[in-house]
Each structure stands twice: as structure tokens, then as C-alpha cells.
């Protein structure tokens, strides 16, 4: 085969030009020259590019003396299989080297012995590598079991196990070792194959010790001591991923280490994103900037990996976190436009060529929450994509009542699709192409409206079931289900704004929908345990944490810490019980539970319970916004007709429902502002305060509309109660200038609803 190689034939032609006539003589001469070239290569003198270099690569690839890798038994511990690279005794016997002293090959025996010695040393090196890999895998397995399923106290070791200092030192050592291996790799994949197995073990070790480090950090309030280690981890993992990505097409053996590196990167991004002090409280202001630059340099590689079925979920999930917390839109938009083939990703998603559709949709939702990202989605015809994707699913009313995993998955995808549409409308609200987005939204929702209405109807059934039925069924809800309810209401607000479904001949459905929404509002309004009630009153609502992130949040201390309204009520609602069962998609399910008088744990407020409360108030605000738009349209119609036709006036909530919601808002805002010693609130508390004040304002406008349109007389004593509460709230808000614009707007509707209240009490 060597003599027939094209490079060998080329050398024959070249040597013939030098006057050698005999082909046998030419062949011997070329082989002799090749030998000396190979000898020089072994001594460190590289063969220059040309025919002899081609023959070298041919011989390396030929592997005539090596064991066939397919014949090697693939066992957990490679050193036990007894297979080496070269069977030196067999080769020696086949060549008969020991008999060469008595033949014409005597002069070549030295070369043969040197070859066999090199083969023997190669076997020793492989044995050493296999032994190290075996030990490394055993150590990784031990660490995983020790830190994952065993208790530190059980081992009775000092420092209750592996100390933070030791863990950080292990991370640095693992990073240094992996980086050294990466630096030793060359663009020629064949030369690297022996390094791939130990490198894969190094990546697994780094991932394992990093997880231990993160577990330590979750038990600590501050993560500042981790800054240098986090930067080192990010540098090592990002540079390793980028380098191996370029080698991967030529070597399938790199798939597993690249996948492990992606898991490590995703863990890093999620950890940093969850730590506010790492993003905003660093003493070294350049630390987060450095992490942002590293993530930006990695983004093009992640864009390429996103197109692969094997890596798409990890790559896209990492990109999602990068867009959320590491880079501004003006930094990532140009990169995505150049490297992220969105149309190809959407096509593969539709065809089922990518593993996790939900991960892709979450990423699209993140993109849609910025104007620049929304424009990219619009140009990719995102509405058509979502419509086709949802058409492939079995979405009907039955899936709202069934807890089968396949139907829950379809329902989650449907919810994400609605969330993307909602985010596009919000992001493009002030853009010149807003009308195009609205038209596409109305067209899309015309096919989704029946299911949206049915979904809300199911929740209305749950919130108005009898106590006996609630005790038997014990349904529960989740944050994701509440988020879906919010997105449906946000889209209904868009439909109401653009006169849909009134203009499409669906007046009966419109009326039924308003009744459903008012029922939900009534549930939110009456859910409060009123002042003076026992803190352990029966909870008609269960929403325990259902995913890992929510469970972590349920262990973190509360930020707002209000004792009123749904902030108080959600604390007992979030208690998980093993007996709870039912469809997790029920978005405001009612169940009566009894707590013993001494059950103080039922009032444990956490970050999760506050998120639950805020989510419910977001729903309340959207309900008020929807009903106000309906009332506004009805009043406008009455002005055109010059009379109020109550027979065709939309269903609106009774004043007592609105009063319950108003009392909650006033109590919460007053308490939070009075508890604040500073003139500035933290960003999240301020956002919640603004949401509650806007909810209060819309409820007052709705009360004014109901009282004037329907002629309902004021509730006895309401003026005094409201006056007392609003006066305390406005007094507490005096030192918080950020609320002044909202309070001015609020004073206008208070003046209309309660004439003389503002002026007589000198409130504003």
C-alpha cells in the first residue's frame, strides 16, 4: 500500500529525473530516505511539507502494528482490560528480530530494537494514562456520592466535610490542570486522541468540585470571596469550550467533554445570575465587566452549538441567562444577527429536530422582552411559527382538566407561546411597527380565544367550588399557572383595546368571559384574612413551590415583609403537603385546609411567598385594566347614542369586591412605606408599590363607573374607613418622591369619587 501511495509515486517520478533508471533501485532509495526522515522526526527535526510528510501521515493513520480499537473491550476501568497500544512480543516474534544476527538484516536490528522500545514506552504511557483516568473516575464517583447522597455529619469529619477553602483550592487546581491539557492540544486531531479521555475526566472533576463550591455558597449570605474563583472558572470553561468546538467536527470523542463544559457554563451563569451581590455589590467593579466580556466572546460559539440536537438545550439555556443578566441588548443583538440562524432554529423546532422546545421558547421570550429582540422575532415571522407549533399539539378543554405529563407539556408550551406574543406587544408598544404587531396578534388570538376563555372558566369553577368538594379534590396551583393566567389577561386587554371580540360577533362569549374574570377578582378581593383575625385562619388556596428554583426561593428570607393582603395569605398557601394532588395547571384553585392554632410555620414568609403574592396582584391589576377598557367602551357607546342602555352594559364588579382590593392595597403600601427608614426603596419593593398604586387607581375608577352608571348608593361607613386608610398611606409616602406622580394621579380620581376628601384633609 505504501508503494502505491500517490506521494510515493510522485517521489518515483522526481527521482527518475535525477538519472536513476532501475525502478527497484529507486524504491530502495526512497525507502532509505524515508527512514532517515522518520529518524529525524523522532529526534525532533520536523519533516518539511511535501511527499515525505504525506507518507509520514499515511503511516501514522495506517496503524499497522496497533491493536484494532474495535476489538478492545470497553469496560468501566480501562486498565483492567489488559489491552495496550502495541503487542510487542507478538511483533517481535512475527519479525523474527532475534534471528537477524544470522541474516542480511543484521545491520537493521538496531533500528528494529529501537522501534520495539518506542512501542514498549508507548504502552507504558497508555497504561499510566489509563491508571490516572481510572483513579480520576473513582474519585469523581466518590465525590458525587459523598456530596450528593451522604450527610457530612454521618462521616463525622472535621469542618463538617470538605471545607470552603479546600474546595476553592480544588477548583483552582482543576482549572490549572484542564487549561494545561487544552494548551497541549494541537490542530492535528490525530495527535490529540490519547489526551481526550483524561481531558474528559478533568472536565468532569471540575464540574463536580464546582457543584460542591456552589453548595457551600448557597449557605452563605455573601459571595464576594468567590469573585476570583468564579472569574477563573469562567475563563477556563469558556476558552476550553471555544477551542474544543473548533476541533469537534474532526473528533466525535470530544462530544462528551464539550457537553460537560456546557453544563458547567450553564451552572456558572445561573449561579452568578442568582447572586445580586455578584452583579451589583462587587468591591471590584471590573469583575462583572470581565464576566460580561467573557460571556460576549462565548456567545458566537453558543449560537453555533444551538443548531445541534445534542447541544441545543444547554447552549440556548446559557444564551438565555446571558441575555437576561450579563449583556445589554445593544451588545447581544449584533452578535445574534450575525451568528444565530433564527429561521433555521425555528424550522428545526417545528420539525422536532431539537430536543427541548420549551428551552427555545424561553429564549424567544427573553428576546421578546426587549424592543431590539422583538424586532428580530417579528422579522423572523414569529407569529406564524407559534401558530404552526401550537397546531401540532392536542390542545383542547380536556387538557385543562388532565394531569397527564404530555398534556401538561403541551399546556406549558401554549402558555409560553402566549407569553411571547404578550411580550412582543409590550416591547413594541411605542414602535412605528406597533400596528403590524397588533394586527398579527389579533389574527393569532382569534384562533386561541376559545381555549383562553375555557382556561379562565376552569379557574372560575375551582375558585367557586363548595367547601366539601374542595376538601375532597384538594387541587393546587403553581407560579407557572398563575403566570399563564397573567399572560391570558394581558392578551385579553389587547383584544379589548382593539374592540375584539365585540366586532367579531362573539357578544355572548364576551359576556361570559367578563363574569369569569369578575369571579377571579372577587376571589382575590375576599382572600385576605382581615385585620384582627387569627394568623392561622383556614387557607382556601394552595400554591407550594413545584420546581427546584422555587424551592430555593422558599428558603430565602422575605424582602417586602408585609403582614397584609396576599403577602400574609400566601405564606400559608405555599405550605406543601404530601396529600395534595390534582391538576397543577389550576390557576386559582380553592381548597380549604385546617391549621392548628399553634402552627406558626404557616406564617413563614419567604421570597417565594412574596413572588406568589405579587403574581396575584399582577393578575388583579390586569383584571381591572380589562374591565376598565370594557367600561370605557360602553360609556363611549352611550355618549354616541345619547342614552345609557343598561341591558347592553357590560358586567362590572360590585363595590364590595372593589373595596376589598382597595383595603389590601392601602394596608400593604402604608405598612411598607412606614417600615422604610430610608427615603429610597430597593428596586423590587418600589416596583411592587407602583403596581399596587396603579391597581388602587383603576379600582377607584371602576367604582366611580359602577356607582354612576348603575346608581348604586355608597356603602354606609365606607367614606370614613377609606378616608382613614388613605390618609395614613399618603402620610407615609411623603418622604418617597418616586411615588409622587402616581399619587397626583390617584388624588384626581379620589376627588371625583369622594368630593372634598382630598381638600378637607389636606392630603396632597
Automatic annotation (TrEMBL):
Q: Name one GO cellular component term.
A: nuclear pore inner ring
Record GO terms (molecular function): structural constituent of nuclear pore
Gene Ontology biological process terms from the UniProt entry: protein import into nucleus; RNA export from nucleus
- UniProt cross-references to PANTHER family, sorted A to Z: NUCLEOPORIN NUP188 (PTHR31431:SF1), NUCLEOPORIN NUP188 HOMOLOG (PTHR31431)
Q: What protein is this chain from? A: Uncharacterized protein
Look up and give the organism this protein is from.
Zizania palustris
Q: What is the lineage of its organism?
A: Eukaryota, Viridiplantae, Streptophyta, Embryophyta, Tracheophyta
Amino acid at each position: 500500500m505504501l508503494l502505491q501511495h500517490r506521494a510515493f509515486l510522485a517521489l518515483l517520478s522526481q527521482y527518475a529525473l535525477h538519472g536513476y533508471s532501475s525502478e527497484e533501485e529507486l524504491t530502495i532509495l526512497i525507502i532509505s530516505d524515508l527512514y532517515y526522515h522518520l529518524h529525524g522526526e523522532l529526534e525532533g527535526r520536523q519533516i518539511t511539507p511535501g511527499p515525505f510528510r504525506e507518507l509520514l501521515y499515511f503511516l501514522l493513520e495506517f496503524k499497522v502494528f496497533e491493536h484494532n480499537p474495535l476489538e478492545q473491550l470497553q469496560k468501566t476501568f480501562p486498565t483492567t482490560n489488559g489491552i495496550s497500544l502495541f503487542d510487542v512480543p507478538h511483533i517481535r516474534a512475527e519479525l523474527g528480530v532475534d534471528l537477524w544476527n544470522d541474516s542480511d538484516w543484521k545491520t537493521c536490528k538496531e533500528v528494529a530494537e529501537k522501534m520495539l522500545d518506542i512501542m514498549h514506552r508507548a504502552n507504558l504511557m497508555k497504561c499510566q494514562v489509563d491508571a490516572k483516568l481510572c483513579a480520576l473516575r473513582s474519585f469523581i464517583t466518590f465525590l458525587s456520592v459523598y456530596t450528593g447522597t451522604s450527610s457530612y455529619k454521618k462521616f463525622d469529619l472535621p469542618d463538617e466535610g470538605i471545607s470552603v477553602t479546600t474546595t476553592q483550592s480544588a477548583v483552582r487546581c482543576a482549572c490549572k490542570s484542564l487549561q494545561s491539557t487544552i494548551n497541549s492540544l494541537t490542530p492535528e486531531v490525530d495527535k490529540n486522541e490519547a489526551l481526550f479521555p483524561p481531558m474528559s475526566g478533568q472536565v468532569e472533576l471540575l464540574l463536580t468540585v464546582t457543584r460542591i463550591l456552589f453548595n457551600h455558597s448557597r449557605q452563605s449570605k455573601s459571595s464576594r470571596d468567590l469573585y476570583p474563583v468564579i472569574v477563573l472558572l469562567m475563563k477556563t470553561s469558556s476558552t476550553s469550550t471555544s477551542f474544543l468546538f473548533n476541533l469537534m467536527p474532526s473528533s466525535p470523542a470530544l462530544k462528551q467533554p464539550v457537553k460537560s463544559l456546557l453544563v458547567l457554563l450553564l451552572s456558572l451563569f445561573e449561579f452568578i445570575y442568582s447572586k445580586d451581590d455578584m452583579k451589583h455589590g462587587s468591591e471590584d467593579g471590573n469583575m462583572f465587566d470581565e464576566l460580561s466580556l467573557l460571556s460576549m466572546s462565548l456567545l458566537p460559539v453558543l449560537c453555533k452549538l444551538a443548531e445541534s440536537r445534542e447541544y441545543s438545550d444547554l447552549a440556548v439555556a446559557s444564551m438565555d441567562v446571558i441575555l437576561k443578566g450579563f449583556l445589554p441588548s445593544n451588545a447581544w443583538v449584533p452578535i445574534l444577527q450575525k451568528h444565530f440562524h433564527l429561521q433555521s432554529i425555528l424550522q428545526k423546532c417545528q420539525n422536532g429536530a431539537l430536543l427541548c422546545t420549551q428551552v427555545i421558547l424561553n429564549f424567544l421570550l427573553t428576546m421578546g422582552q426587549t424592543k431590539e429582540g422583538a424586532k428580530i422575532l417579528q422579522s423572523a415571522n414569529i407569529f406564524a411559527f407559534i401558530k404552526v407549533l401550537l397546531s401540532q399539539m392536542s390542545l383542547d378543554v380536556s387538557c385543562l382538566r388532565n394531569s397527564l405529563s404530555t398534556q401538561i407539556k403541551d399546556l406549558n408550551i401554549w402558555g409560553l407561546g402566549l407569553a411571547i406574543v404578550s411580550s412582543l406587544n409590550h416591547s413594541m408598544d411605542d414602535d412605528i411597527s406597533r400596528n403590524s404587531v397588533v394586527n398579527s396578534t389579533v389574527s393569532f388570538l382569534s384562533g386561541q380565544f376559545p381555549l383562553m376563555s375555557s382556561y379562565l372558566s376552569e379557574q372560575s369553577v375551582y375558585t367557586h367550588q363548595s367547601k366539601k368538594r374542595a376538601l375532597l379534590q384538594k387541587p393546587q396551583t403553581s407560579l407557572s399557572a398563575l403566570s399563564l393566567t397573567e399572560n391570558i389577561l394581558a392578551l385579553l386587554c389587547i383584544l379589548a383595546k382593539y374592540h375584539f371580540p365585540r366586532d367579531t360577533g362573539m357578544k355572548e362569549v364576551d359576556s361570559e368571559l367578563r363574569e369569569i374574570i369578575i369571579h377571579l377578582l372577587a376571589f382575590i378581593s375576599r382572600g385576605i384574612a382581615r385585620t384582627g383575625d387569627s394568623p392561622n385562619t383556614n387557607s382556601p388556596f394552595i400554591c407550594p413551590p413545584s420546581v427546584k428554583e422555587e424551592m430555593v426561593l422558599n428558603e430565602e428570607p422575605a424582602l417586602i415583609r408585609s403582614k397584609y393582603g396576599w403577602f400574609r395569605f400566601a405564606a400559608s398557601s405555599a405550605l406543601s403537603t404530601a396529600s395534595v394532588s390534582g391538576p397543577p395547571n389550576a390557576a386559582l384553585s380553592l381548597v380549604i385546609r385546617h391549621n392548628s392554632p399553634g402552627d406558626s410555620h404557616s406564617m413563614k414568609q419567604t421570597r417565594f411567598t412574596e413572588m406568589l403574592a405579587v403574581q396575584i396582584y399582577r393578575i388583579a391589576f390586569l383584571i381591572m385594566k380589562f374591565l376598565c377598557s370594557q367600561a370605557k367602551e360602553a360609556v363611549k357607546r352611550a355618549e354616541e347614542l345619547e342614552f345609557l342602555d343598561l341591558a347592553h352594559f357590560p358586567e362590572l364588579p360590585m363595590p364590595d369586591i372593589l373595596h376589598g382590593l382597595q383595603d389590601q392595597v392601602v394596608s400593604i403600601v402604608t405598612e411598607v412605606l412606614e417600615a422604610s427608614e430610608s427615603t429610597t426603596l430597593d428596586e423590587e419593593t418600589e416596583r411592587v408599590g407602583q403596581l399596587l398604586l396603579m391597581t388602587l387607581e383603576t379600582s377607584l375608577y371602576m367604582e366611580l363607573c359602577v356607582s354612576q352608571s348603575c346608581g348604586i348608593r355608597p356603602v354606609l361607613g365606607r367614606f370614613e374607613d377609606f378616608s382613614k386608610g388613605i390618609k395614613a398611606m399618603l402620610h407615609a409616602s411623603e418622604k418617597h418622591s418616586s411615588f409622587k406622580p402616581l399619587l397626583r394621579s390617584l388624588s384626581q380620581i379620589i376627588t371625583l369619587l369622594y368630593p372634598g376628601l382630598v381638600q378637607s384633609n389636606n392630603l396632597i
